[in-house]
Amino acid sequence: MPLMNREQWAASDPGLRMHSWIEDLPGQMRRAVAFWPGEAAGPMPDRGVVAAAMGGSAMAAKVALYSVRARLPAMVVHGDTLPEWVGPGWLCVACSYSGNTRETLACFEQACRRGCSVASVSAGGVLQDLAASQGFVHRAMAAGQPPRTAVGQAVVGLLWTLWTHGLVADPRPEIEATAAALGTQWARGIGSSTPWETEPGLIARAVPSTCVIVAGAGLSLAPALRWSQQLNENAKLPCFALEVPEMLHNQVEGLEAAARAGTVLVLLTDHGQSYSEGAAMDYLGSVYEGFGGTAFAVASRGTHELERIFSLMYIGDQVSYLASLLRGMDPTPVERIGHLKKVLAPGSS
């Protein structure tokens, strides 16, 4: 497949819109952290914290909640119903970029009825209005971009909410370090003079006409899901995220057929993974290549957890963008998602 020079990119990405949004992730995080109200938002929950979110907002919630996993039960609800055991003593954070996500609004209303502590994060919409009318803490985001490209400011907003409830230490130093590292990562990836020869470029060149499997473990689980979402939405490619060690008990049996069908395997590694998780990643890569498949191992960068998580996510963002160019796909529109939202809206026939 012929590679495109930078001047040709606008043919698939009009106005280089998605290019600009991905490049701006470090700046987006800096702008979000610059707005840091210091007032306390509410009491620390003593039972757990749940984030109600979908899509890109749910991805941001997974990243933010990783920082509280050792202190209290923490989970993301991908749907319209909170677990029955979520009630008083729980903090429910509703996060929706548009502020109009049907499932998130349903969970918000349930949390109110059940006596949870409630907070919200959005760029306006019904969610912001409901929070204001009921006196709940609301963290505003800047509007005007696809939700999946707002993951940086969503994570910052969620971390601010967790911080004001006493669930995390002040995350600003880690956020600022992460933004700086992502700027360097961009300069060495798509922003370099030879983008197709960088790590994102080489992976993108292998995936534009095939299915992709991304495996993660521990810290890299959320990035694996992000890779899947970005390749789905930006490049319109089938991509699936699998979890180590769970996949070793089932899905590993299907890898030979996947390899022979040309599916690309991406293994997201991190130095914080357990010995068995690291050994599993090594095994999966070697056995997959033994089946004749193509496998890439992508290692996290950085020291603290937030930086390492975002480093893996940002490589995937760049891969998805370059793959969209090679496929001749405009990475911004998501027409099927928009259609489904209309079909599933209350009152639709």
Quick summary of this structure?
This protein is an alpha/beta fold and 349 residues long. It folds into two domains: 22-167, Glucose-6-phosphate isomerase like protein, domain 1 (Rossmann fold), CATH 3.40.50; 187-326, Glucose-6-phosphate isomerase like protein, domain 1 (Rossmann fold), CATH 3.40.50.10490.
Tell me what you see in this structure.
- The chain is of the alpha/beta class.
- It has two domains: 22-167, Rossmann fold (3-Layer(aba) Sandwich); 187-326, 3-Layer(aba) Sandwich (Rossmann fold), CATH 3.40.50.
- 45% of the residues lie in helices and 14% in strands.
- It has 13 helices and nine strands.
- The chain has helices at residues 17-23, 25-34, 55-65, 102-114, 125-134, 151-164, 172-188, 199-206, 221-233, 255-260, 275-290, 305-326, 335-344; strands spanning 48-52, 74-77, 90-96, 117-122, 137-140, 212-216, 239-243, 264-269, 294-299.
- The strands form two sheets. It has a five-stranded parallel beta sheet with strand order 2-1-3-4-5, sandwiched between helices.
- Helix 3 packs across helix 6 (151-164), helix 8 packs across helix 12 and helix 9 (221-233) runs parallel beside helix 12.
- The longest helix is centred in the last third of the chain and has 22 residues, at 305-326.
- The radius of gyration is 20 Å and the shape is globular.
- The mean pLDDT is 94.
